[in-house]
Amino acid sequence: MKLYTKGGDGGTTSLIGGERAAKFDIRVEAYGSVDELSAQTAMLRDRLAEAGIADFEEDLVTILRRLMAIESLLALGEGYEGDKVPDLSDEEIAEIERRIDAVSELLTPIRYFTLPGGHPLVSQAHICRTVCRRAERRACRAAAEYTVSARALTYLNRLSDYFYAVGRRLIDLLHVEETLWIP
Prior knowledge:
Blueprint: E1 12-14, E2 20-22, H1 26-50, H2 57-74, H3 90-104, E3 113-114, H4 120-145, H5 150-173, E4 180-181
Antiparallel strand pairs: 1-2, 3-4
Helix pairs in contact: 1-2, 1-4, 3-5, 4-5
């Protein structure tokens, strides 16, 4: 099988179900942003492994799987009626919430915003957080025009909080100073 189809040479791409959409269609922008988030999440996972930090390994593998599902949900053409792309479940939302809570319980409470940085791993967690927020904004914009899974939107919303908590936890694990933004 060839990696290229030439179908996109004219500025359109195929959505699941066969609908053609412009490459600048908000659905394509949304699933492209989730794809970028997947790559950044994989980078975080790989860098954590290199540093010998396994605390988030299972979470990140699960997240990568969920992101692929969300990409598929965002790539559904209007009127798609197949059953090959299952929606996320309420349990999957509850699971990411439990993980946020578990990581957050290990953190020192703060009254101010934190500034990204202090260590490349902390910065990578914050890159994941900000890319996730952009993906969520684009998915919400797509939902204003097309049918989009409400659970996918909820998951992306929670996921940015997860990456924030991971960034703060890495400050502790790496023994670096957390920089607070104090106006």
